[in-house]
């Protein structure tokens, strides 16, 4: 695939590029090789610098007082950027941890931090193992074929994170639909509509739901994460309605969508690399390394944006105060200077310095949970798996933010339920 540098840069602002691995990685490899700090002017978008080298993404993540999340934490159209700016000025709209900088970020992050520490995660492992068994059993019930994404992968992590929040199972399907509409706004199969107003309607439905949860948990706390969020206080005052709802939204959505992408993409990688599947089945002790390789391979979060607060020089290029930079995580995770043979899927890769969870103060709050969920699922699946192959063509979602496979048709044979 022959691309100019300008075409390669514009691919980062094209949702369809993320549904085409060959096109995306050809563009990213060209940028890493020839112009790793590349100015992008894409139709319909405000311009930005594309940062594609692992070392440079790491440097900008470390310089969190120079490169801020606000006012442009995610890549969006110029029209949506302006709408987001007006909403922020009015104090309304989504304001999650990924929208914040210190000191607000540090204070708000601390509200849920204890729920994701190792001790809390260990306490959840029996429930996670139970849910992993339930969804491998579900594969057996479905017979010998299924769409692994839609019938298994999107549901298992959803049950985990919403159980942590303490939400009723009767609401899980609603949460799944809203999450897919929120993160799938660039994909014709997933979005509710194409206009900013229709995307706002998705957010407002989230907010209305979580406003009810907040009122219920303030009246009667139930010892779950939703209660901790609802009753959190900053400087002696409760969070305002938008910040409270935003906290729920980021936990409920990012807490399952990224993990489902990892599990589905990881299974796809094992099918495509049967030698690695055999290696992992022969040596289950490799599973923790294999999970991190799946995370690197899939890289569910495609980008975050930062804005420079002062002039900053990177690889001889001056990024001016006020300029936006796009941190390309799929590119950093295929950097030839960091990873030996980065386009080889290797379940024993060690070290594996991937940046799929970010780095520094904005390191993913749920990283440990994501690893535990993926490990528990494959611990349950692999001993029962007799055979597996594709039963159709996998399809990836069109996105510039979060995504992965949206369909993975498979044919398989499973042994009966494992004894524990």
TrEMBL record:
UniProtKB keywords: Heme, Iron, Metal-binding, Monooxygenase, Oxidoreductase
Pfam families: p450
A GO molecular-function annotation: steroid hydroxylase activity
Keyword Iron (UniProt): yes
CDD domains per UniProt: CYP142-like
One example of a Gene Ontology biological process annotation: cholesterol catabolic process
Entry keyword Iron: yes
Family matches, as PROSITE patterns: CYTOCHROME_P450
Family statement: Belongs to the cytochrome P450 family.
Designated name of the protein: Cytochrome P450
Naturally occurring in which organism (per UniProt): Actinomadura viridis
């Amino acid at each position: 695939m022959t691309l100019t540098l300008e075409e390669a840069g514009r691919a980062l602002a094209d949702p369809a590029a993320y549904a085409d691995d060959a096109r995306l990685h050809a563009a990213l490899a060209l940028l890493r090789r020839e112009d790793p700090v590349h100015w992008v002017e894409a139709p319909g978008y405000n311009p930005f610098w594309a940062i594609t080298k692992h070392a440079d993404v790491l440097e900008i993540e470390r310089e969190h007082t120079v490169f801020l999340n606000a006012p442009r934490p995610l890549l969006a159209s110029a029209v949506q950027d302006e709408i987001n700016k007006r909403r922020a000025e009015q104090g309304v709209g989504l304001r999650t941890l990924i929208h914040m900088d210190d000191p607000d970020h540090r204070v708000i992050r601390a509200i849920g931090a204890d729920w994701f520490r190792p001790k809390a995660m260990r306490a959840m492992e029996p429930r996670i193992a139970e849910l992993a068994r339930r969804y491998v059993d579900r594969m057996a019930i479905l017979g010998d074929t299924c769409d692994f994404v839609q019938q298994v992968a999107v549901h298992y992590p959803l049950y985990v994170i919403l159980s942590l929040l303490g939400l009723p199972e009767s609401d899980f399907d609603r949460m799944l639909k809203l999450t897919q509409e929120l993160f799938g706004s660039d994909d014709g199969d997933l979005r509710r509509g194409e206009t900013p107003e229709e995307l706002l309607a998705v957010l407002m439905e989230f907010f209305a739901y979580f406003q009810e949860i907040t009122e219920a948990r303030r009246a009667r706390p139930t010892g779950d994460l939703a209660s901790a969020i609802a009753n959190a206080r900053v400087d002696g005052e409760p969070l305002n309605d938008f910040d409270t709802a935003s906290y729920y939204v980021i936990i409920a959505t990012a807490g399952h969508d990224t993990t489902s992408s990892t599990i589905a993409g990881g299974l796809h990688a094992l099918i495509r690399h049967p030698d690695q599947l055999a290696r992992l089945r022969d040596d289950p002790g490799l599973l923790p390394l294999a999970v991190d390789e799946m995370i690197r391979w899939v890289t569910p979060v495609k980008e975050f944006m930062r804005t420079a607060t002062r002039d900053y020089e990177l690889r001889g290029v001056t990024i001016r105060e006020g300029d936006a930079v796009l941190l390309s995580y799929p590119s950093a995770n295929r950097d030839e200077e960091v990873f030996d043979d980065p386009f080889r899927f290797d379940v024993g890769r060690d070290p594996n310095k991937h940046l799929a969870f970010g780095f520094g103060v904005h390191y993913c709050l749920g990283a440990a949970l994501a690893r535990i969920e993926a490990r528990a699922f494959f611990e349950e699946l692999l001993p029962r798996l007799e055979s597996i192959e594709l039963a159709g063509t996998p399809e990836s979602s069109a996105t510039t933010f979060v995504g992965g496979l949206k369909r993975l048709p498979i044919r398989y044979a499973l042994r009966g339920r494992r004894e524990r």
